[in-house]
Amino acid sequence: MHADLGPWPRPVSLTDIEYAVLRHIRLHPGKSRTEIAAALGLSKSMLTKAVANFDRFKLVREERATLDDGERGQPPLRLSLNDNAFHSIGIYIRQGLYAVTRSDLSGNIQERVSRQVDALIEPILDDIARLIETSPSPILGVGHAVPALVGEDGTLFEVTPTQAALPLSELAERISARFRLPVYWDNGAYCAAAFEAHRPHTDHRCLFYISLDFGIGGGVVTKGTVFRGAYNQASNIGALIPETGPRPNLSDLARHLGCSLERLSEDFLSALFQEGDSRLLAWIDDRGRKLSRPLATVVQLFNPDAIVVVGFFPRKVLERLCERIDLGALDVAGRRPLTRPTLAVTRLLGPAGLAEAASLLPIAAELLGQHSPRANAYRTR
């Protein structure tokens, strides 16, 4: 069934210039009007007009700076987001488990729910209802990090095989029907890449994100915008590693350890790592080396200033995996190597981390002027 979510009344009406100003304020809170105008190349009157429109929706606040000892004159007004002007909901589901979050405009989690359940839809709807009822602010929409590739029109066309039975479209339809809110969804790696690039006080010029969960996902954000390619399939790093070969994800590790996928909980893997389990350590070392060529390809093609790793593995497992990755694997002797990006593990780990990342989708679509695919029904291509 096609999920026709219908035209939604936008809670805020902004121009392209106002979107740019709001993005800058979110990334660089506490800047003065003069600093913002200079950074964006705007006239004072254009910025004044933008801030006046923000005032209509109480999107920003201005606070007088304090002078340092010895300074004189009127201290400037500094602009920051009014985080509680709106909130948003983020969700992530997998078989038998889900996470739901409510975030403010700066991406701070105000409330989080994670549950292990047999039936997914009704408990999720009930938790969303409770988060909406307890929110001090209007809800912009619902963002869903999905284990799939998503077309520009919001159609899912490749779901991770182990998660193909998830009721993704039905859940989107039920959310929109019950709460009359727009539902946005995107590949989990794209969600996490955009969230990482849009954190306040972050200034990544080009960031690559790799997600190791039930599959392998990738995302690139350049100057604050997710790079999607011509067909919304860019950065699909999993395609560089054959399905028949060793892939650093949960399904691959389950086969390596000879256990069920369901057994690979964070507690179980943490205990194995703490014990120094030889099978787990051998898998980490081997898969880290096998990630070297794909990620070295990323360095050569995109030259990012940061590569960030997320996944459904304990932090220490991912950190050891990163230690085995050689980002210079494709360097050519005699040619000056490209500047290396930093390689680090994100704080957005596990289902709750992806739900947190998904909460940015409504904010990006409604307030930052960026494309977030609206949920559409699943169909194969």
Order of the strands making up the biggest sheet: 6-5-4-7-10
Count of DSSP strands: 15
* Percentage of β-strand residues: 15-25%
Number of helices: 13
Helical content (DSSP H or I, runs of 4+):
25-40%
Overview of this structure, please?
With 381 residues, the chain is an alpha/beta fold. Helices cover 36% and strands 22% of the residues. It contains 13 helices and 15 strands. It has helices spanning 16-27, 33-40, 44-57, 121-133, 168-179, 188-197, 250-257, 266-275, 278-290, 292-302, 315-323, 350-358, 360-366; strands at 31-32, 60-64, 77-81, 87-94, 97-104, 109-116, 139-146, 148-150, 156-159, 183-187, 206-212, 216-222, 225-227, 306-311, 342-345. The strands form 4 sheets. Strands 6-5-4-7-10 form a 5-stranded mixed beta sheet. A hairpin with a 2-residue loop joins β12 (216-222) and β13. α6 (188-197) crosses α12 and α9 packs across α11.
